[in-house]
Design goal:
This protein has 16 helices and no strands. By secondary structure, the chain is mostly helical. It is globular and about 50 Å long.
Length: 312
C-alpha cells in the first residue's frame, strides 16, 4: 500500500513540476516578443522545437516501436493537440488582447472548477470538504495575486471574458483526456503526437514561413530563447503532466496543483522584470500555496479507493 501511495504522490509531484515549468514561460516569451515575435509564433516554437527532443527520447528509450500508438490514443492526441493545446492557446491569447492579462488570468483559473465538475461526471470522483475549500482558496488567491487589490484593472468586455472561460474549459478538458489516455498509452509517445498536432495547428495560424518570421529564425538570440522555451515548457512540462496524470491521481486535483504556474510566473516577473508586488499579492500567493497543500490532503477512504483501483 505504501508503494501505491508513493506512486500517486509522485504523480502529483510531476504535475506540480509541470506547472512550475510552464510558469517560467514568461521569461522566454517576453524576450521573444521584444524581438518582434507574435504570441502565435512563440506558442508554435515552444512545440515545434520540442518535437525532436521528445522523438530522440523515444528512440533512445524504446526504439522505433516507441512511436506505435493505438487508434484511440492517436485520436486523443489529435484532440488534445488541436483543441486543448492549439485552440486553447489562441483563445487565451485573444482573451488577453481583448480584456487584458489580469482579467484573462483570473478567468482562466476557473479551470479547476471545470475540472472538478468534469471529474465528477466522467470519473465519478467525489469531492470532500477540503477539496471545496482548496478550490475557493485557489480562485481567491489568483484573483488577489493578479489584481494586487486594484480591481479597476479588471475588464468585463463580454467577448474577451467568454474566450477566457473557453480557454479555462479547454484547459480542464486537457486534464480529463490526459488521464483517460494515460491508462492505456505511453506518456512519452502521447506527448510526441500531442505536440505534433498542436504544432500543425499553431503553424497554420502563426505562419512561420513569412519573411518576418524567417528572419527571426535566423537570429541566434531568438533561437536560444525559442529552444529554452521548447525544452522547459514544451517538452519537459507536457511530459511531466501526462506522466503524472497516468499515475492514478485524481483529475479534479491536477489543475489546482499545477496552478503553481501562476506563482512561479508572478515571482519571476517581480525578480527579473521589476513587476510590482504588494501585500495583497503576497496574500494571494499564500492562499494559492495553501490551496495546493489542502487539495493534496486526501481522506483515508479516498486513498483506499485509489489503492483498490490500482490493485484490482
Amino acid at each position: 500500500m505504501d508503494k501505491i501511495k508513493s506512486k500517486i504522490n509522485f504523480g502529483y509531484l510531476l504535475v506540480f513540476l509541470a506547472g512550475a515549468g510552464w510558469g517560467t514561460g514568461g521569461i522566454y516569451i517576453t524576450n521573444m516578443t521584444q524581438m518582434g515575435a507574435s504570441s502565435l509564433l512563440t506558442g508554435f516554437t515552444g512545440h515545434v522545437f520540442a518535437l525532436p527532443i521528445i522523438a530522440v527520447a523515444i528512440l533512445l528509450t524504446k526504439g522505433f516501436k516507441g512511436f506505435k500508438v493505438s487508434k484511440q490514443g492517436l485520436l486523443f492526441a489529435l484532440v488534445m493537440g488541436v483543441v486543448t493545446k492549439g485552440f486553447f492557446k489562441m483563445a487565451y491569447d485573444t482573451s488577453i488582447a481583448t480584456v487584458g492579462l489580469s482579467t484573462a488570468a483570473v478567468v482562466l483559473y476557473t479551470a479547476p472548477v471545470f475540472a472538478a465538475i468534469l471529474s465528477m461526471i466522467v470519473f465519478k470522483e467525489k469531492l470532500h470538504t477540503n477539496n471545496y475549500l482548496a478550490l475557493a482558496m485557489n480562485l481567491s488567491g489568483v484573483f488577489l495575486m493578479v489584481t494586487l487589490g486594484n480591481f479597476s484593472k479588471l475588464n468585463v468586455e463580454p467577448f474577451g471574458v467568454v474566450l477566457g472561460f473557453t480557454a479555462a474549459f479547454l484547459h480542464a478538458s486537457n486534464t480529463i483526456m490526459a488521464k483517460i489516455s494515460g491508462d492505456s498509452e505511453d506518456p512519452l509517445t502521447m506527448t510526441f503526437y500531442m505536440l505534433l498536432f498542436s504544432t500543425i495547428t499553431q503553424g497554420i495560424f502563426s505562419q512561420p514561413w513569412s519573411a518576418k518570421n524567417v528572419a527571426l529564425f535566423m537570429d541566434t538570440e531568438f533561437l536560444f530563447w525559442a529552444l529554452a522555451n521548447a525544452v522547459v515548457t514544451g517538452a519537459m512540462s507536457n511530459l511531466f503532466y501526462l506522466k503524472g496524470m497516468s499515475m492514478n491521481i485524481d483529475a479534479s486535483k491536477a489543475p489546482v496543483i499545477s496552478s503553481v504556474e501562476v506563482i512561479v510566473a508572478t515571482l519571476l516577473g517581480v525578480v527579473m522584470f521589476n513587476e510590482s508586488m504588494n501585500w495583497v499579492g503576497v496574500l494571494g500567493i499564500i492562499l494559492m500555496l495553501a490551496s495546493i497543500y489542502i487539495m493534496n490532503q486526501e481522506p483515508e477512504k479516498t486513498i483506499g479507493r485509489n489503492i483498490n483501483e490500482e490493485v484490482y
